[in-house]
Sequence to fold (715 residues):
Amino acid sequence: MGKSDTLGKGIISLLNKVIDKLIKIKICHLLWMSVLASEIFTAVIVSIMSIAFYGRVTNDYLITGSVTALLVSFVVVFVLLSILKQMRRTEAEHNRLLNILKASLNEIYTFDPDTLRLSYVNAGAVRNLGYSMDELKMMTPLDLKPEFDEVSFRNLIAPLINHEKEKLIFQTVHRRADGSLYPVEVHLQLIGYDGEKVFLAIILDITERKEAEEFMRGILESVGEGFLVIDPAYRIILANKSYCERTKTSLNAIKGRCCYEISHRIDKPCFEAGEICAPRHTFETGEACTALHTHYDRDGNPIYVETRSFPMNDAHGNVIAVIEIVDDITEKKRLEDQLRQSQKMEAVGKLAGGIAHDFNNILTAIIGYGSLLQADIGEDSHLISRLEHILTSAGKAANLTRQLLAFSRKQIMSPKPVNLNDIIRDMEKLLTRLVSEDIEIKIMLSEKDLTIMADSGQIEQVIMNLATNARDAMPHGGQLTITTETFRMELGFIKEKGFGKRGRYACISVADTGEGLDERTKERIFEPFFTTKDVGKGTGLGLAVVYGIVSQHNGYIDVQSELGRGTTFKIYLPLTEKEIEEAEPSVSEPVGGTETILVAEDDEIVRGLVKETLEGFGYRVIEAMDGDDAIAKFMEDKDEIQLLLFDVVMPKKSGKDAYENIKKIKPDVKIVFMSGYTADIVHKKGIFEEKIPFLFKPVSPGEILRKTREVLDRK
Fold:
């Protein structure tokens, strides 16, 4: 007997002993062991037992056959047990998934790609839709989705059938059995099931989400600021109504487009154009940022805005989008510009007012003594031309002072009811001489009288300045049109223009067909000393003076202009119900007299000029250097003095205070005031309220004589 036989018999003997033991084990124990033990251990035991059931192994049993049978049995049993176990797992998983589908609150159903008939519907769909299971299995998705017909629905699912997309997600509405609608979000896939293709639809009821979105949308739509959500490519994800209105663009036209295309009307990011971009800073740093920008609406009109950007972060802190708040500061900027303009005018006005008194006294002396000298030397003197140059230059200096005070609204004026149409009619010949022959003048006046409270001379200056401006804008000829009409200023106009008060106005329109103005020039035309003319050809005060005079008359001015399309100035002056007073006849030539006049003037040169002027025409003059001195001098000759000629502002006691004291002594005494101070200072003295005769410096000898005679002759 060989070694292999001996080894084989030993193994068989051992197996026989194991089988004897296993046979004695009860079947229930074996099943319990098969469940608890691994597949391999169970397979070995069952294989050994299967051999034992076919017969005992004897000493003459071929070991080779026994081993082969054992291995084959092991493999077969192992495979069968694995399959059975996998089937149990699959069935358990199937039951678990089925229970999940049944318990899901979402609607879940499958439908056939060809017929669209629903093939499976979960309990959630039955509960949400209100149909029975049998009813639903006779329906298609079209019965549930009223927004779709068969053509539009098949177009929707075509990308899934053509394998262009793996999944579709869209929002629509579902219709319940009772006819009510509710919003849903549909997740749709084409899947394989039992060797066939079916559509699997999972539907989420998004009523609460929509309500929350509508609530947030309501908040966003109610705020006045523009609101944007921008992705990293600077595309607009969301925009509110305010932003759409300011850019004059619909929401559908905004979504998906880059913010710089809508806001700046350019084809590249604004930071590439040199501007500070708040969203870019936030994307790069994760920090909030504020920047000032000029946006443009669809018509190209500028909108001045302040933009503030805030980051939207994901769970890892990465900036996935930026919230941008756009605050329209156009009105704020306009008010700031007006404030700066007002401050400039106030600063120059203070300068003009500060020097006006002394400067006007100096000019009074120059003009006065020049006029006296002109009368003395006669027209035949070879010096007359030089003297005329001196007087002309002094007159220009006086006019410049008046212009400085006019635009700073500190010029003294004497408003009274006047007919605007009459002022323009009286100027027609003057305007014809002012412009060149190749400019046609058209004047169209309102049929109704336009009565305003105004200083006629200043209104004339306004029209003259605008006509001169129009002439310079038409170097090659054109048309100048001046019209008047009544105008009722309402809230809509005030809101649009940003100025005005409700009421009835007289509107003067001065239009030319000249070169026009660009936006930057329009913003600055009323600034003092701003001019587009060559050096030496303009002071830059013409339109500033217009602005000042109109403002001083409680009016408003508006300019409309485009390059190459001319310019139109519109001036609105409040209408009044007061009746027009008849003009008092003026004395054409200076006339003298023999009356006694008390002259109170703190400037020695001006006082000497007035004295010499009056005495040269026969008057007796008593001089006083200040208010106290004037009272004292009056007390000495109160019975002889018939007229007081006082400077308004003097040391120790003002001219007005001195007059009040003298009037207590002699109530019927006559008075003429004169001053070189600004209107605000003279108004404080109450001169105009009492309608006291007044001379504004610089004053000529002729004006002094005419006013003196006029007041003395009053009864």
Remarks:
- The longest strand covers residues 181-193.
- Residues 1-39, 53-65 have pLDDT under 50 and may be disordered.
